[in-house]
Amino acid sequence: MTNKTVFIPPIKSQGIKSKLVGWIASNIEGIEFDRWVEPFMGTGVVAFNIRPKKALLCDTNQHIINFYNALKNKEITSVIVRNFLTVEGEKLLKSEGSYYYDVRQRFNEEGNPLDFLFLSRSCFNGMMRFNQKGDFNVPFCRKPNRFAPALITKIANQVENISQIINFGDYEFKTQDFKKTLKEVNPNDLIYADPPYIGRHTDYFNSWSEKDEFELQKFLFNSKAKFVLSTWLSNKYRTNDYIFSVWKDCYVATKEHFYHIGGKEENRNAIYEALLSNFKLKNSITNDELFNRIKNNQSILTTEKIEKIIPVQLTLFDETAIDTLNK
Ligand SMILES: C[S@@+](CC[C@H](N)C(=O)[O-])C[C@H]1O[C@@H](n2cnc3c(N)ncnc32)[C@H](O)[C@@H]1O
Fold first, then answer.
1. pTM of the predicted model, to two decimals?
2. Atom of ligand 1 nearest to the CA of 195
3. Domain range for 111
4. What is the pLDDT of residues 8-25, one digit of tens each?
5. Which atom of ligand 1 is nearest to 205's Cα?
């Protein structure tokens, strides 16, 4: 079965890989594995779209893990989300927006996963940022009518889709550091690692140093499992030299990716995304070959341009229902 739909998770984050998940999936198409392991799951968009039968999904951010465990245990369902956002959304509207800050304070004191969802969907630009004390500190998006019925329906549907994906598979969610996760890996697992970029974020959950990068390399190579790691190759200003030092023994697949600053066409910037691996990916080249391309100033740094169809390993309820109806 093929599917081009990307399922967007209900929790938002600036690091979300929703635009790259098709490319990641196409690069590992046909690879056999027992369990999918993500030491840095973030929003979980990659795992939820690859839809492996079995997965270990971890992050140091306990709020993400608590949210997905609540979906798994059915403490949070699409019906609960709809009711919660309707009630809380009305309070937000009545207060002309100031209620956002009450919820933020409540969340920072109690850590309720429903409050986390409320904040994620009504904060400025859907950002996920925590201060040095570990408190969520993103300001309000300044739209008191944020939780209009159409958005509530959209979020409830996202919760429904992701809950189905989780409940169809055998998924484990754990709050832990990547080193602990990688110690739990078996040789037949496939690891997808998407660590924070060095020096990019100063957020409580996203500090990442050169030492972390070296340790990650050591743990990944020692794990004996196949791994794929997401990083960046180059932007308008510089090249990621770690690819040619820390990751010099890896295969590399790259893709040109455009993003807009402030939504203006003239501010369209290209970044080359990279996938590093310890086995040959569908569109990868060797690290040496990539290095020579850059050294010889060859303009083609993209080893793959076409978005491929996502392989589906699990079927959702409603898709099965549609298939049955079509028979
Ligand atoms: C780039 S984001 C992952 C994005 C994810 N692939 C997605 O598409 O949403 C990196 C994640 O690593 C987590 N993280 C940072 N340091 C960590 C560590 N030492 N161990 C485990 N997770 C960590 C952060 O909380 C963040 O969620």
1. 0.90
2. 10
3. 78-160
4. 999 999 889 999 999 999
5. 25
